[in-house]
Design brief:
Layout (H helix, E strand, L loop, with lengths): L3 E7 L4 H14 L1 E11 L13 H4 L14 E10 L6 H4 L10 E6 L2 H9 L5 E3 L12 H9 L3 E5 L1 H5 L1 H18 L4 E4 L11 H10 L4 H6 L3 H9 L2 E4 L4 E4 L6 E6 L2 E2 L4
Parallel strand pairs: 1-2, 2-3, 3-4, 4-5, 5-6, 6-7
Antiparallel strand pairs: 8-9, 9-10, 10-11
Helix pairs in contact: 4-5
């Protein structure tokens, strides 16, 4: 089974707070986290900046609980889009976009959700869990996203903060499950403080409330996260084995022979 991952730690926090989050995540058993840089076009016109290298932020990374390995830190870009024109950045040839390990989109309308699922080159589609959805999920775009290897992200932190948002989280998640049948789901935290983080097994239990089976809930914090990372990577095939590298570095994320997982290098 793949290691546990949390693909959404907000990068807006200061360095000291991020360090505390990383230490908490490693202590809880997460082997991979992604620092999430969010661009919301409603605030003001924004440009995509280069991601800050994790090695610059954290000279020394914490050891993952129960292992001898240090936690792996990835970079993530999330675009919050409320108008089709906001998607043009993803269609552009911006070099900075390709520097991020994971690219996510948070569509605010049904039309943008359809575009994200069917045409955009993204790794994650974020599902709103803090308010009632303004549209219903439809099978064709969801199935196309699954076929394209795109994953849907649900956040759990709002559900543990507020009872109203807990209802929205569960309701919106179950609506999605009725269409996707538990496939291609990733559960992340978006935690801003260490106390908001939950261990991977606790998160998997929350997944049961979202309508996932036990196996699907565990996959949402492990194998599905790995698949999301691989979707955001490029493949280099030189005879054998298959080497998969991250977008923004020559670091090998995964090695395999004939598509089978092998030990990390």
């Amino acid at each position: 089974m793949a290691g546990f991952a949390d693909l959404n730690l907000p990068q807006g926090a200061d360095k000291k707070s991020l360090q505390s989050l990383l230490e908490a995540a490693a202590h809880l058993g997460y082997s991979v986290v992604a620092l999430n840089h969010v661009i919301d076009f409603k605030e003001k016109k924004q440009e995509i900046i280069k991601p800050v290298s994790p090695s610059e932020l954290f000279p020394s990374l914490p050891i993952v609980q129960g292992t001898s390995k240090r936690i792996k830190v990835l970079t993530r870009l999330t675009l919050v889009v409320s108008d089709p024109s906001h998607c043009n950045l993803l269609r552009s040839t911006s070099a900075n976009i390709r520097l991020y390990d994971i690219i996510a989109i948070f569509p605010k309308t049904e039309k943008l959700f359809h575009i994200a699922c069917t045409t955009l080159d993204v790794d994650l589609v974020c599902i709103n869990v803090t308010e009632k959805l303004p549209f219903y999920f439809r099978r064709p775009p969801v199935n196309m996203a699954i076929d394209r290897g795109i994953y849907f992200e649900l956040l759990y932190t709002p559900a543990i903060k507020d009872s109203t948002m807990r209802r929205y989280t569960i309701s919106n998640a179950i609506s999605l499950m009725q269409i996707c049948k538990g496939k291609n789901i990733v559960i992340s935290s978006a935690a801003e403080r260490p106390l908001e983080l939950r261990g991977p097994y606790d998160v998997a239990n929350l997944g049961l409330l979202f309508g996932l089976s036990e196996g699907e809930a565990k996959a949402a914090v492990s194998t599905n996260c790995r698949a999301t990372m691989l979707h955001g990577a490029f493949e280099v095939l030189v005879l054998q084995p298959l080497l998969v590298y991250s977008r923004n570095s020559k670091e090998c994320l995964w090695r395999g022979v004939h598509g089978e997982e092998a030990s990390q290098g």
